[in-house]
Amino acid sequence: MSTTIRMADGDFFINSAGRTESIEGPSKAAQDIGEILMTPLDADRDYGNELETLDFPPQISTFAGEGLISKKVDEAIQRLRRFQRKDVYAEADERIKKIRNLVVQNIGPGSFFFWVNCELEDTTVTPSRVLVVSLRHQESAQVGQTMPELLRKIAKLNR
Question: Is 14 inside any structural domain?
Fold first, then answer.
């Protein structure tokens, strides 16, 4: 069994007793997905992603931007799968089998929202991560107006 320390907002999660908590299984898988998608690529370790290196002009086509982000997210998840296969303690309820759904949507000039849902090797639980990739500065009102519509689409996919 593989365990790790539970994280919250990029830091160790501290419970009401003032202690850290450990997680395993699908919860660990969900945290690992979020971690690899927020970690810049380290080519020496073959870990992380190249999303932060993307620099889209504001006039990029939605199709091109969504396609490139889909490719980079898929590459990061494949890196995580390779990393998990090397971990002798990783069990089937935390190892990613495949990406079940990957939704990328343009939410403003040079900014994209994506949601990834992965199927694990041995569980009915599918950990998901919802992240907003802002490749250009934009007003937060645009994101706020678009987010409810995107969340409704995600709910339909999850049924």
Answer: no
Domain count, the chain: 1
91-127 pLDDT, tens digit per residue, is: 888 899 988 888 888 877 777 788 888 888 886 666 6
Question: Is residue 110 included in any domain, yes or no?
Answer: yes
Enclosing domain of residue 83: 3-9+20-157
- Which helix (DSSP H) or strand (DSSP E) does residue 129 occupy? strand 128-134
DSSP state at residue 18: S
DSSP 8-class letter at 52: G
Whose CA is closest to 78, among 33, 39, 128, 114? 33
Q: Is the separation of the CB atoms in 95 and 84 below 8 Å?
A: yes
Torsion sign across C-alpha atoms 11, 44, 90, 84: positive
> pTM score, two decimals?
0.74
- C-beta of residue 51 within 8 angstroms of C-beta of residue 69: yes
Structure tokens at 145: 């107006």
